[in-house]
Amino acid sequence: MAVVFVQEEPCFSRRFAAWGKLLFWVMRGELRPVGARAPLPPDDATPKRTLASGGGWSLHEIVCRAGPSDRPFEEQHDGFSVAAVLEGSFTYRSDAGHGLLYPGALLLGNNGSCFECGHAHGIGDRCVSLNVHEEEFSEVAATTALTSRFRFSAPSLPSSRALPVIAQMDALFLAASSPRSEERVLQIIEFVISVMTGDREIQAAPTGRETSGWSRRSGWLKPTRRDRLG
Predict the structure, then answer these.
(1) Which of 44, 51, 58, 85 is the most interior residue, by most CB within 10 Å?
(2) Where are the domains of the chain?
(3) Who wins on pLDDT, 51 or 205?
(4) Is residue 14 a contact partner of residue 8, using CB atoms and an 8 Å limit?
(5) Cβ(134)–Cβ(80) under 8 Å?
(6) Which class would CATH give 14-28+46-197?
(7) What b/e sequence results for 165-188 when a residue is b if at least 16 CB atoms lie within 10 Å of its CB, and e otherwise?
(8) SS3 of residue 167 by DSSP
């Protein structure tokens, strides 16, 4: 039976609240500032910390300290990934294409596919990534896309489409042991697949007034010099 994902028509305050919660994890110490970390070993450029996990899924904080002088190297997705970019910008290349990712965007990764990330535009990034095993993903795809062989056909989704995913990731993090955790994971995957198959109406991107308002309200969330990725 398909999981029904109810998407409200969010006003700007809801959009800010959902995104602000994820950024607030950094401020309250749940997601540790990059600048506060011990120096990373040369062979550990992208440390990963598990925030929550369950049967067939896991939620991670992933931090990269690479910069323009670092050469991109090939990695491989272990499971299907949906990752919200919290800080930094970087290029992402996978079997589904390539593009520039920035705070608020969603990175998409297919199970077993190779990918590369580059940081020609700055140093480092921080993402919160949901990883789902092949079996669980295929079950959702079979009911949502009508084929268990569905794969992401684009490398990312823009920030205008990310609100429901960010809200569910926040709920997963705050109540990882909740009986609803698995349902939330399925909702995230179903929503992303629905967006990519054209079955989900998408929010319009924020207007200029909303963007400037967000900047004013979120000024207190900006990291200190000590906490900056660079």
Answers:
(1) 85
(2) 14-28+46-197
(3) 51
(4) yes
(5) yes
(6) mainly beta
(7) bbbbbbbbbeebeeeebbebbbbb
(8) helix
Distances in whole angstroms, Cα of residue 76 to Cα of each of 93, 94, 114, 117, 230: 11, 9, 4, 11, 26
| DSSP summary character for residue 227 | G
- Beta pairing, strands 156-157 & 48-54: unpaired
Structure confidence by residue, pLDDT tens digits, 49-108:
999 999 999 999 999 999 999 988 899 999 999 999 999 999 999 999 999 999 999 999
**pTM: predicted TM-score of the whole model, two decimal places:** 0.70
Element containing residue 172 per DSSP (H, E):
helix 163-174
Helices (H), 63-133: none
228 or 217: which carries more pLDDT confidence?
228
Q: What is the pLDDT of residues 33-42, one digit of tens each?
A: 444 344 444 4
Give every CB contact of residue 208 below 8 A, 6+ residues apart in sequence. Answer: none
User: Residue 108's CB: how many other CB atoms inside 10 A?
Assistant: 23
Residue given tokens 């919200």 in the structure block:
84
